[in-house]
Amino acid sequence: VTALTAAVLLAGALAYTSFSASSEAREPSQLVDAEAGRTYQLTGVVAPGYRRIGDVLRFRVHDRGGGRSVTVRYRGSVPDPFRAGREVIVTVRRDGAAFVGEADSLITRCPSKFDAAEPA
Amino acid sequence: MIVLGRSALLLALVLAPAGVAAAFVGVRRADARWSAVGRRVLYSLFGVLSVAMIVLEAAFLRSDFSLGVVATHSSTTTPAFYRATAMWSSQEGSLLLWVWLLAGWASLAVRSGHRRVPEIAACATCVLLAFALFFVALLVLLANPFAQLAVPPAEGTGLQPLLRYPAMMIHPPALYSGYTLWTIPFAFGIGALVSGRLDAAWIGATRRFALAAWLALGFGVLLGARWSWSELGWGGYWAWDPVENAALLPWLTGTAFLHSVMIQERRGLLRTWNVGLVLATGILAVLGTFLVRSGVLESIHAFGASTLGVPFLAFIALLVAGSTGLVLHRRALLAADGRIDSVLSREAVFLVGNLLLVGLAFVIFWGTFFPLISEVATGRRASVGPPWFERYTVPLAIATVGLAGLGPLMPWLRASPARLARAGAVPAAIALATAGALLAVPPVRSHPAALATIAVGAFAVAAVVLELLRAARVRARASGRAMPHALAGVVGRNRRRYGGYLVHVGFAVLLVGVAASSSLQHVRDVRLRPGDTAAVGGYDVRYVRATGHATREKLSLGAVLEVSRGGRHVATLTPTRGFYAVEDPRLGPVDRYFSGEATSEVGLESGLGRDFWTAVEPDVQALRPMIAGIDRRFPLASGASQRFLLDAVAERYRRFPPPAAFRLIVSPLVAWVWMGGLVMLAGALLALWPAPHPVLRRARLAVPRALRAAGRA
After folding, report:
1. What pLDDT does A114 receive?
2. Chain A residue at shortest CA distance from B601
3. What rounded mean pLDDT belongs to chain B?
4. What local confidence, expressed as pLDDT, does residue B114 receive?
5. Is the pLDDT of residue B705 over 70?
6. CA-CA to B342 of 20 to 30 Å: which in B180, B198, B530, B621?
7. Can you give the pLDDT at residue A109?
8. Residue B577 pLDDT grade (very low, low, confident, very high; cuts 50, 70, 90)
9. Predicted ipTM beyond 0.85
10. A12 versus B455: which is more confidently predicted?
11. Do B91 and A115 touch (CB under 8 A)?
12. pLDDT (tens digit, 9 = 90+) per residue, B89-145?
């Protein structure tokens, strides 16, 4: 009975905290109505022509299928596989027209492993 | 050659279903002859798959670009060592490795199991062959490694540079061995359920395989963490990435299984729990394999679009439904014969430990699959980050370490509180003293979780070491031998127990390392020019000069950093970033190095007390005008002339370096993570090492005696 109660409590806590602490994964086109002050998990493809100014990296991310894109300002070092054409996931917050990435939240998918077909 | 590999795979696709059918008939009619056929088919399957492995490996070593997998995962510029390992960087090659390992381990298990538990082994053969059939079918129909290109390219794309790390040779085979070895207790568990022989016999027959699976999977995870720390340029060893989590899940439930089966072997209790755990572990192992290939979850480990998702999901659904059905069907036979007598007993501690481990696994499962759960529940994909994982895993892990110390102090059946208090007093005092000493250290004081982990870790280590010394003292007194001799004797006689204790010590050390390195590390991202100095965690780091070096494979740009503390030299580190060429004729001979992959070579100074970790990101923008100029003038440079141009770029970077971005980390006790891990592995090896068989030992003593007697006669 004790074990069962503990299990139920744990499951309840997991469910509650995970729903309240999670951030939503969205593609750029789903960020049109993004509220300032909330964090989002932005996923999409890095557009060519990203620039580093000082220690801030400015890059644009567009939907996987192309289309809308948003600008992200990211401070700090980026993962090794980061480059144009790669899929990234980054936790962002709205700042005016652009988005600011949270430090250390940028993840790049590394493309060559287990890819069905790598776009040339 | 390629024809040979392709025929071997086709033959495997014929053998596997034939074997399943033969083994099935053997189980159905309880006919040992059919079961023997099934067994032999399994051995032949291993032989046939070995041929396919050799052919594919040879194709990689020869750089045979007529094969699609070789052309897209290797190149002539890839060093031979990495050409040999490039095979498992591909979907096709890694699947072949998986099923080859499965067939190999399964053959071993069935060979040793069919004498001990014939009915169970017969059914296990059928299950293992069915696993092999699934993977062989995937290989032949959806991911054939021997698919040939109509027009073979002159040069391959090369192995992904991030994978060029010595552990590449062992990390994937170790992980896959772990995954495939877990299917063996799974298959024997199914065999026990089907045959209705639910005593501890199936557990005894697969104990070594379960332990080996635990060892291999743990080793694979540890190597992956080490790889991340020393090669990937982000400065950590664990990121709660779905693929890392997926490997940890069966390891956790497997750890629970290795403990709870002892209760069944000794007391006949927890049958349902054990069968449930082994089935869950086997399924989680397949799930782990699936996650890397499906693209269902976002992860740093590359999942591209893949066609394997649906068959894998169907296979996992079948495993879950079949397992649940079998357990329900046998619920009457699974009922326990007795109950746990006292909360103060080893079985009670094991049970609580089991609940904690399964709780940990459940938390990690929930967090890993939360994107899917939330999509089902709310229609939106959302994910949870490391703080969420840590909120639950940290307290559960601290409690688990505490039990790792408490377990060895507890006798089976029941303990007297007085005796327990006596045995636990010194370890508890050591833990309290550790906590007290740490409270005096200001940075630790503000991290209660780290403090608690270290104190509880001290308790666990002290408890196990004192218990070992106590046993050795008893033996020394009884045998009249010296302590070291007595200690070796105690451990040698009961390898399983003391191997387990050693694992507990390693686990405590590992978690102390994790607690200290994650809570107390200093990270700084800075931009420096040569001559500049930055301070991090009490150290001064001076950017002395830039480095630049070109080879045919890559262009390396980096820095020489002088690390000092209070004016005293500590280390000279040389982090670099390697730029690998992309084979794209539209790009200029130099530009193609800056448009391909780039990876960090970390500058690392490891020590028992702390690691100093540095990575550099050179500002390539400043070189762009020069690169464009060179490419305009020498668009067709190749071979030696291309190398000459690269040398010029490297020289330019060395002489006129632009400011570079650095990540500097001082992380305490990281080495303890690796040391603890190695101690755990050593403990598992000790437990696995075959103990001298009692009959054999008697024979060894008897034979010389008989010979002496014969000599006298």
Report:
1. 40
2. A80
3. 89
4. 93
5. no
6. B198
7. 63
8. very high
9. no
10. B455
11. yes
12. 888 999 999 999 999 999 999 999 999 999 999 999 999 999 999 999 999 998 899
When scoring B357, B617, B620 by the number of chain A Cβ atoms within 10 A, the one with the most, hence best to mutate, is: B617
Q: Who among A7, A23, A113 is closest to B89 (CB)?
A: A113
Q: Which of A9, A17, A39, A110 to mutate to test the interface with B (most CBs of B within 10 A)?
A: A110
Contact B163, B231 (CB under 8 A): no
Checking if the pLDDT of B278 tops 90, the result is: yes
User: What single letter denotes the amino acid at residue B538?
Assistant: G
For CA atoms B117, B118, B123, B124, the dihedral sign is positive
Task: Say how far apart CA A76 and CA A99 lie, in whole Å.
Answer: 15
Task: Pull the structure tokens for residue B61.
Answer: 């070593």
- For tokens 């762009």, the residue is B624
* C-alpha to C-alpha distance for B588 and B426, rounded to whole angstroms: 70
Per-residue pLDDT band at A110 (split at 50, 70, 90):
low
In whole angstroms, give the CA distance from residue B185 to residue B496: 18
**Do B438 and B451 touch, CB atoms closer than 8 A?**
yes
Q: Mutate which of B75, B92, B384, B587 to test chain A, going by most A C-beta atoms within 10 A?
A: B384
CB contact under 8 A, B391 and A76: no
pTM confidence score: 0.89
- Gap between the Cα atoms of B662 and B617, Å rounded: 6
Report the alpha-carbon distance of residue B327 to residue B323 in Å, rounded.
Answer: 6
B51 min Cα distance to partner chain A (Å): 23
Nearest residue on chain B to A2, alpha-carbon basis = B352
Who has greater pLDDT, A53 or B707?
A53
**Contact yes or no for B302 and A113 at CB 8 A:** yes
Q: List the one residue out of B545, B662, B619 whose CA is nearest residue A53.
A: B619
Q: What average pLDDT does the segment B245-253 reach?
A: 95
Cβ neighbours, 10 Å, residue B39: 24
Nearest residue of chain A to residue B584 (CA atoms): A120
Nearest one of A44, A101, A94, A111 to A78, comparing CA atoms: A101
Q: Which of B166-170, B525-529, B705-709 is modeled with the greatest confidence?
A: B525-529
How far away is chain A from the Cα of B577, in angstroms, using its nearest Cα? 9
Amino acid at A110: C
* List of chain B residues whose C-beta atoms are within 8 Å of the C-beta of residue A18: 366-367, 370, 373-374, 384, 388
Cβ atoms of residues B510 and B680 within 8 Å: yes
**B200-205 CB contacts, 8 Å cutoff, 24+ apart:** B200/B261, B200/B264, B200/B265, B200/B268, B201/B116, B201/B117, B201/B120, B202/B117, B202/B120, B203/B261, B203/B264, B203/B265, B203/B274, B204/B116, B204/B265, B205/B112, B205/B113, B205/B116, B205/B117, B205/B120, B205/B121
Name the nearest CA neighbour of B246 among B294, B212, B309.
B294
